[in-house]
Design brief:
The chain has 196 residues and is an alpha+beta fold. The chain contains four helices and 14 strands.
């Protein structure tokens, strides 16, 4: 199922007081919601939560939630951090059907920037979308969308149709071929040309 397993405890107290009590006990409070059951206040030991968080696979991946002998697949929808210490202070988990479909934001990454003809000529990569919302099977969420810049020239526009999506994965915006990024002439290159 999933690489990450979160062992949770159900919190009796909810609200601000319950969250503070969990944090004083060395735990990170959270909420489990979605599906046919109501929301449940939970908590995870802070060291276990940090370990899962620092794998880089907590957000946007299927995670196994364990409570005693019971387990279920979930996805971490949000994690809040303390503004000064950067410690995790709250998280939201969404119940999912492993065989079902889910809407999720997937990051866009660019490769071969060093060999891109458009960038070598002084162009700049103007990224319109750093992530794209996709409909995908819950058990096959792509880690990233990769754009290859090896053959891109100045003035080229990279659209969602240019990215090869895995089988069963579709963008939530289906009515148009939206822009991911463009290769434009940088303002520094334009001012150099003007000086020349």
């Amino acid at each position: 199922m999933a690489d990450i397993v979160l062992n949770v405890e159900v919190r009796e107290r909810t609200g601000t007081g319950g969250s503070r009590e969990a944090r004083r006990g060395g735990k990170v409070p959270g909420i489990l919601y979605g599906g046919e059951r109501g929301p449940v206040a939970i908590s995870v030991k802070e060291n276990e939560f940090r370990k899962a968080l620092y794998t880089g696979k907590l957000l946007g991946h299927l995670v196994t939630l364990k409570y005693g002998d019971e387990s279920q697949p979930v996805i971490a929808k949000d994690i809040q951090f303390h503004p000064v210490t950067d410690n995790p202070i709250h998280f939201d988990l969404l119940r999912v059907d492993e065989a079902g479909s889910i809407r999720i934001n997937v990051p866009v990454h660019f490769k071969n920037q060093d060999t891109c003809p458009g960038l070598k000529m002084g162009g700049s990569l103007e990224i319109v979308r750093h992530e794209v919302e996709l409909n995908c099977p819950a058990n096959a969420i792509p880690e990233e969308l990769v754009v290859d810049l090896a053959a891109k020239e100045l003035g080229d526009t990279i659209r969602i149709a240019d990215i090869e999506l895995p089988e069963g994965v579709t963008p939530t915006i289906a009515d148009r071929d939206f822009v991911i990024a463009t290769l434009k002439v940088s303002s520094a290159a334009m001012s150099e040309a003007a000086d020349a």
